[in-house]
Design brief:
Active site: 64
CATH topology of the largest domain: Metallo-beta-lactamase, Chain A
Largest sheet: 8 strands, mixed
CATH class of the largest domain: Alpha Beta
InterPro entries: Metallo-B-lactamas, RibonucZ/Hydroxyglut_hydro, RNase_Z/BN
Strand order of the largest sheet: 6-5-4-3-2-1-18-19
Number of strands: 19
Catalytic activity: Endonucleolytic cleavage of RNA, removing extra 3' nucleotides from tRNA precursor, generating 3' termini of tRNAs. A 3'-hydroxy group is left at the tRNA terminus and a 5'-phosphoryl group is left at the trailer molecule
Structural class: alpha/beta
Number of helices: 11
Keywords: Endonuclease, Hydrolase, Metal-binding, Nuclease, tRNA processing, Zinc
GO molecular function: 3'-tRNA processing endoribonuclease activity; identical protein binding; zinc ion binding
Strand content: 25-35%
Helix content: 25-40%
Radius of gyration: 22 Å
Order of helices and strands: EEEHEHHEHEEEEEHHEEHEEHEHHEHEEE
Length: 316
């Protein structure tokens, strides 16, 4: 399972940073969080396949987070996509998609399902067999949501208990693991709870979108057991007034929320175009004395969620 940072810039792209877009690769599927301009071309230099994207999550409707969507959808159509795609975002997302696709001509023949979020409280928007997705309302200059991915793990079999109860290796073990009781040859019924251990803790990742620092967001992540937080840090900590004025966060703000959340890793993104040189970010990170691993994201950075390592990967 890997995070691929397609774009890590803010409102204005630079030679080093495209508009923000993050792909999460999980079991052959790609979840896309925001889709800034040029996202599809960035994918060409990575292991991310646009045709594997089934769900797109839009934090808010500022251009640097959405302008890659029309081109991405049209390229999917050119590549022969027939499967529908789901797009989640705040109220106004449906109109945005309609207007975006009304510009020029296109041959999109697959279904585009748009789900608008209007909750003032955290809400679960996807509950599938493999994972859950939560939307958390954050505070920006327009309606904006953070997103949290939480992996689901199935309960584990206690083989010693199963054998002691007379369960033989074969279909009965599979049924028990799937939560189905089985009847043994001697007539005894074995229930799943008799032989199952609690599931291992799944991976939990949060993406803040654009926001001021919100303590309740950190507390919510702690409750969910998130270990990775991707938080915007548009400004270094000397520009706190700029952050307040534009409803963004500084490096210090992001660290504060990460500490409240109790995450293992904080990844800083949405870096302002004023920072052609990010040495000031690196200096702040180096001076941090806490226990959180802090990473300043770069375009084409890959974070391996299993190995807890990151590297730059650009494919030929």
């Amino acid at each position: 399972m890997r995070l691929v940072f397609l774009g890590t810039g803010a409102a204005v792209p630079t030679k080093k940073r495209a508009h923000v877009s993050i792909a999460l690769k999980i079991d052959g599927e790609v979840l896309l969080f925001d889709c800034g301009e040029n996202a599809q071309r960035q994918m060409m230099f990575t292991e991310v396949s646009p045709m594997k994207i089934n769900n797109i999550f839009i934090s808010h409707l500022h251009g640097d987070h959405i302008l890659g969507i029309p081109g991405l959808l049209q390229s999917m159509a050119f590549s022969g996509r027939k499967e529908g795609i789901n797009i989640y975002g705040p109220v106004g997302t449906k109109d945005m998609i309609i207007h975006a696709l009304s510009i020029g001509y296109h041959g999109i023949n697959f279904k585009i399902n748009v789900y608008e979020i209007s909750s003032k409280d955290p809400i679960k928007i996807i509950d599938s067999e493999k994972f859950e997705i939560y939307a958390f309302p954050v505070k920006h200059s327009v309606p904006s949501y953070a997103y949290i991915f939480k992996e689901k793990k199935k309960p584990r079999l206690d083989m010693n208990k199963a054998k002691a109860l007379g369960v033989k290796v074969g279909p009965d073990l599979k049924r028990l693991k799937e939560g189905i009781p089985v009847k043994l040859e001697n007539g005894r019924v074995i229930n799943p709870e008799d032989v199952l251990l609690p599931p291992k803790k799944g991976i939990c990742i949060a993406y803040s979108g654009d926001t001021i620092p919100i303590e309740e967001f950190g507390k919510f992540l702690r409750e969910l057991g998130c270990r990775v937080l991707i938080h915007e840090a548009t400004y270094d900590s000397t520009l706190k007034e700029n952050a307040i004025e534009t409803l963004h966060s500084t490096i210090e703000d992001a660290i504060k929320i990460a500490e409240i959340a109790g995450v293992e890793t904080l990844i800083l993104t949405h870096i302002s175009a004023r920072y052609d040189d990010i040495s000031i970010y690196e200096k702040e990170v180096k001076e941090y004395k806490g226990n959180i691993n802090i990473v300043v994201a770069e375009d084409f950075m890959v974070y391996d969620l299993k190995k807890k390592t990151h590297f730059i990967s650009i494919l030929d």
